[in-house]
Amino acid sequence: MWCWLRSALRSLRRSPAALLAGGGRPRAAMERAVVRCVPSEPKLSLRFVLPDGSARHMQRDQAEPLGRALARIAANAAKGPAKAAKKSKKARAEGDPAGEAAAAPVVRLFSRDGEAVAEEVPNAAAWQDGAVLQIGEAQYRVERNPPALTELRLPRSLLAGFPVCPKVNAEFAAPQHCLFRWYLERRPSAGGETAGGDGPAWVEAAGSERVFTPSNALVGLRLKLRCTPGDGAQRYGPPREVESSGPVEAGPGACTFDSRHLYTKKVCGEGSIRAVSYNILADAYAQTEFSRTVLYPYCAPYALELDYRQNLLKKELAGYSADLICLQEVDKSVFADSLAPALDAFGLEGLFKIKEKQHEGLATFYRRDKFSLLSQHDIAFSEALLSDPLHKELCEKLAKYPLVQEKVLQRSSVLQVSVLQSATDPSRKICVANTHLYWHPKGGNIRLIQIAVALSHIKHIACDLYPSIPIIFCGDFNSIPSSGTYSFISSGSITEDHEDWVSNGEEQQCSMPLSHPFKLLSACGEPAYTNYVGGFHGCLDYIFIDKNALEVEQVIPLPSHEEVTTHQALPSVSHPSDHIALICDLKWK
């Protein structure tokens, strides 16, 4: 976790103006003694550079008395001169004092107010920020838990006109408090060499934001980022630099979402909520031979690659200025390494729920300055059906149909439920649900059981745990508007003789009446399609809202049919998924 280079420790001295004591008085520049002390860990670490230039890294028990740690530092400090003396046989033979074993220097620790810290004080309490460590004549300013970068990474693919969002992980710091400086690789001169010798020459770019969007003029150039970690309290740690692995490449030109961004340039007002639901096409499914040759043979192979699609996705999602984003088919690594860092830079906090035995799952993002997270209530349908008493009656009914029951229990589908509280009006809470139901065209009965479990679980949260809380239910329901699942959700009930109960053939049929108490409305209506591939197009995705508590302000128009079919179908070089995002602005009634 501590990737501090010896040279960084040696050279990173704070200026007298920057090195302030508690009262704000400037102090003389000193070397740094960096202490990392975390309550959950038994040991603290101490790093400093001795006057002879040798770096020291020590691990000490937090409960150990300070005196023992100081004695160990003294012994360490004496090692360097002692080793040098051993090499000088001549000095020892001539009786030169330098040839004798070096005496250990006096080592003391002083508090910020100049008092010597008692040797019986435990290490955890002794090593405070701003204290001074004295080793002989050398003095060190103690920096306890200073901001430190643990990871700094740029995306592998950079496209002109698309935001570059670095992945920043830090300890005792937060990305929003870090300082960012972007640099451009200087173009080679006419002779083919950069003006500066062997390595690339860098020129600082305009702007110092966390996100950088390269222009078309930068195509062919690499980028470099210098990040200085900060904690929001005017404390900064050592900077780190990272260079892009490749140059900026030309973007695809117009994308299907460009015209939609015209409606979403600004974040909604205080009483409104902009919600997005989007199946983003998991890389696990896009990068198979079957996908390339059968499902999406019309799509250029490079446009199916994850790095390329992530560029489009990040620009698309950031441009919607959403308050809530519910995503399906999110690869675990895509969430952690790409979407969460990118959307965090645009003010959105992310939550992830992986499918059972899968590499992809669901992600819900919410705008931090509008909402805070109160609780999470995620479930796997199969597990909840078997173990949660809420579903006992449904489970008993399903047991009469063992073939269907087996199918239901084999599925890995999950439900993500997050209860959010308004940042400006704590009395306003909302239950945000997100799911991706079973995909098979003949799986209507399976989807009915899954949605029954989902709505029963949501009822427990929105009626029992948080009475009368409104719900927003997003997802890829894999159900067209004429299906039993859609009818059940929107009407509140389904009869035992609905045709979807026998959708998987007579031998795998089941039938039972179902009901739920909610009054749900498809906020975006019933578009002609939300999924458009070579062999199928239809409406499978919805944002259902509690129509007793919420109403629709506006629905952001879907891309035109001409835009969708420019490259025959989806995905394409200008659209990153085989689905289309649903976007609507809602307001409290």
Structure description:
This protein is α+β, with helices and mostly antiparallel strands and 589 residues long. The chain folds into three domains: 83 residues, Ubiquitin-like (UB roll), CATH 3.10.20; 84 residues, Immunoglobulin-like (Sandwich); 333 residues, Endonuclease/exonuclease/phosphatase (Deoxyribonuclease I, Chain A). It is 24% helix and 27% strand. The chain has 16 helices and 29 strands. Strands 17, 18, 19, 20, 21, 24 and 27 form a seven-stranded mixed β-sheet that branches. Strand 20, helix 14 and strand 21 form a beta-alpha-beta unit. The longest helix has 22 residues. The radius of gyration is 30 Å and the shape is globular. The two termini are 49 Å apart. The N terminus is likely disordered.
Cα shape: globular
Average of pLDDT: 91
| Structural category | alpha+beta
* CATH secondary-structure class of the largest domain: Alpha Beta
State the end-to-end distance.
49 Å
Helix content estimate: 10-25%
Under CATH, the topology of the largest domain is which? Deoxyribonuclease I, Chain A
Low-confidence stretches: 1-28
CATH architecture heading of the largest domain: 4-Layer Sandwich
The largest β sheet comes out as: 7 strands, mixed
Strand content: 25-35%
Counting structural domains, the number is 3
Put simply, the count of helices is 16
Going by CATH, what is the homologous superfamily of the largest domain? Answer: Endonuclease/exonuclease/phosphatase
Radius of gyration: 30 Å
Number of strands: 29
